[in-house]
Amino acid sequence: MDNEQTASSEQPVEAGPALNKKILLVEDDEALASVYRSRLELEGFVIQHVNNGENALQAAMEFRPDLILLDAMMPKISGFDVLDILRHTPETANIHVVMLTALSQPKDKDRAEALGVDDYLVKSQVVIGDVVDRVKHHLGVTQ
């Protein structure tokens, strides 16, 4: 009888429509990345984490995420440069990109918007639930 129950429920209910949506998390702060990864996985997303811009570009091509959560200030290649390259590469041009950064100046947000960011969130102004809500919004995942 246990087999019948398992066979009848192919997807976990709590994962919902987020199941199999892939997110590339680009964050050099390992502690923060761990918190975001755990929460997003609980929401049913498949997460790959990298800690610098160079690895982000490679992972974007190989992992083919549905959305990239991108820090701005990182080693090797900045988030702004990563965004610029993503938008000018045919294979990655249409991936949703949400910048999650400590940079709160309007000029930084303007720069990101000029480069084609989908959303710009300042770490000190949002909680993790806000980030999850924005991710779901851009991926068309209902609550």
Q: Which second-level CATH architecture applies?
A: 3-Layer(aba) Sandwich
Distance between the termini: 32 Å
User: How many helix segments?
Assistant: 6
H/E order of the elements? Answer: HEHEHEHEHEH
Strand order of the largest sheet: 2-1-3-4-5
Shape: globular
Q: Summarize model confidence as the mean pLDDT.
A: 89
At the fourth level of CATH, the homologous superfamily is: Response regulator
CATH structural fold name? Rossmann fold
What is the alpha-carbon Rg in Å? 16 Å
How many structural domains does the protein architecture include? Answer: 1
Mind telling me the CATH class? Alpha Beta
Overview of this protein structure:
By secondary structure, the protein is an alpha/beta fold. It has a five-stranded parallel β-sheet with strand order 2-1-3-4-5, with helices on both faces. α2 (30-42) links the parallel β1 and β2. Helices cover 43% and strands 17% of the residues. The two termini are 32 Å apart. The protein has one domain (15-139): Rossmann fold, CATH 3.40.50.2300.
